[in-house]
Amino acid sequence: MATTQVTISPEALKASQHSERAPDPCIVVIFGASGDLTKRKLLPALYHLEQAGNLPENFAVVGVARRPLEQTFAADMKDGIVSGGGVDAADDKLDPFVGRIRYHAMNFDDAAGYDALKKLLGDLDGEFKTQGNRLFYLATAPEYFSDIIKFLGEHGMAQPEAPVEGAQGKGSWVRVIIEKPFGHDLESAKALNDEVNKVFREDQIFRIDHYLGKETVQNILVFRFANGIFENVWNRNYIDHIEITAAESIGIEGRGPFYESAGALRDVVQNHVMELLSFVAMEPPVSFEASAVRAEKIKVYRAISPIHPADTVRGQYGPGMVDGKAVIGYRQEDRVHPRSQTETYAALRLEIENWRWAGVPIYIRAGKRLAKRVTEITIQFKQPPLLLFKDREGKGAEGIKSNIISMRIQPDEGIALRFEAKIPGPSMNIAPVNMNFNYSEAFGVSSANGYERLLLDAMLGDGTLFAHRDGVEATWALMTPILEYWAKNPIKDFPNYAAGTWGPSTGDALMESEGRKWRKL
Ligand code: BG6
Question: N or C terminus: which one in the chain shows less Cβ crowding within 10 Å?
Fold first, then answer.
């Protein structure tokens, strides 16, 4: 398989891991710190930042949750950094880093707990010289977001108490990262936005979608706007259709109660997939500033025409085989209703009604317990206007294939271009071939999990890769009518796909009814 030659020196590559921008001293305060996310993703990400020299010297982490974990929390986080972050337990920065981790037990609706937390943070400012700067991270179940925000406001913790001694006249800052799901539908997202905006200014709020931290997602913009050749054909004149697949082979991994109230559309499509779509479809922003990028994303969402129920498909997995092992169906999962109507697969067809995209169908599918884990965007081009080789069509393999640009978000991150080539020999036989760019082969580094970049950006106050209020509401505005229609019209044949397959046949029919097929991934 052809690979890409990269003309960047190993030194330059190493240097690129180090941010040119250094965050201010600060304390990262994680609410819901006893959950999986903190141990598996957030602490490993913070430690990777430390290893790359991207954390400030004056820094501390405080985990906040209900259980009394004071004695075990730091050691548990160390385990997470080693096992989840692939870090050597003997790494010389590890123990000093773990020495900066603290824990505070409290109920999220207990006023006294916030007073005690405020005092603890003040004490830590003294101990670690963190200058009053705070990055709150809401990693709790979403039902606690409002309470925490409200109490932070009431206890004077949402706005900096400037100027703080040692901050050299700069004043301090307070920011809040809010995990997904941000709302449950349009109304609840608006209500949550109102509550958050009562306490924090929009520039203090970082609605996180970890997909935006993935290198391959950011690279969509680089691919499109740092190269001269693709943008010219990136429109309705040349593109036949776009496919976005976010397939997972895992099930719901013990998250029954959460998933029962979410489903694939809320869990992955409304956020991750729509973010991908906005990057693929947006107009070039005037700069890479947060406001310029967000403005273009919102224009894409607002140009999507209402999605008709007939252009939607839902599925739910039954028992099946994944990686050679028998697995149970969704309805047999722990704490899932035996007649659950929750979809574990969702597929949509939509159109963006603007000059660039009018008439180009966009097919989206996302699901759990599918045949494999792969997130990919496929841009399929139109056939050449004159098929010189049309008599080959239907002969040999499958006739002439259209050009495809596929952007592999994960795993095997990279970009491939499919085109036709002549098979060597006296006859004019042709076959599709691929030109491949593979991230890890080209750069020798694997793509980070997304959280590193986003935590760093939030510490720097850069909201470019975070969702804005209007964007979140715009995507909910598209999804809510579908959710309402689905709620009113239960499906009779759930489960309708076996675990380990590519989803229900209705998902294939969505494309087949228009003479197209999902690309084989
Ligand atoms: C999360 C969803 O936001 O994204 C999970 O809640 C899903 O259900 C996960 O598994 C997928 O993320 P990634 O980075 O593994 O593709």
Answer: N
> 3-state SS of the chain: helix, strand, coil percent to 5?
40, 20, 40
Q: Give the contacts of 314 (CB within 8 A, at least 6 positions apart).
A: 263, 264, 265, 343, 345, 346, 347, 486, 491
pLDDT at 165: 55
Residue with more model confidence, 393 or 52: 52
With 0-12 / 13-18 / 19 or more C-beta atoms within 10 angstroms meaning exposed / middle / buried, residue 409 is buried
Which residue out of 207, 209, 248 has the highest number of ligand 1 atoms within 8 Å of its CB and is therefore the one to mutate?
A: 248
Cα dist from 224 to 5, 216, 220, 293, 356, whole Å? 19, 12, 6, 14, 14
**199 three-state secondary structure:** helix
Distance, CA 119 to ligand 1 centroid (Å)?
35
Q: Please enumerate in sequence order all residues whose Cβ is within 8 A of that of 104, keeping only pairs 6 or more positions apart, or say none.
A: 62, 63, 64, 113, 116, 117, 120
Spell out which residues line ligand 1, taking CB within 6 angstroms. 180, 210, 248, 267-268, 375
The predicted pLDDT at position 3 comes to 57
Instruction: Verify whether residue 272 is a known catalytic residue.
Output: yes
Contacts of 306 (CB under 8 A, 6+ apart): 478, 481
User: Tens of pLDDT along 120-177?
Assistant: 999 999 999 999 999 999 999 999 999 999 999 999 999 887 555 555 556 799 999 9
Q: Which is catalytic among the residues 272, 308, 337, 468?
A: 272
Residue 488 CB contacts under 8 Å (≥ 6 apart), including other chains:
none
Helix (H) or strand (E) holding 482: helix 469-488
Distance 69 CA to ligand 1 centre (A): 27
How far apart are alpha carbons 331 and 318 in whole angstroms?
Answer: 7
Q: Which of 260, 212, 217, 240 is nearest to 471 (CA)?
A: 212
Rounded distance between C-alpha atoms, residue 95 and residue 27, angstroms: 18
Predicted TM-score (pTM) of the model is: 0.92
What's the pLDDT score for residue 440?
Answer: 84
Interval 430-444 mean pLDDT: 88
What's the one-letter identity of residue 369?
R
Return the higher-pLDDT residue of 257 and 391: 257
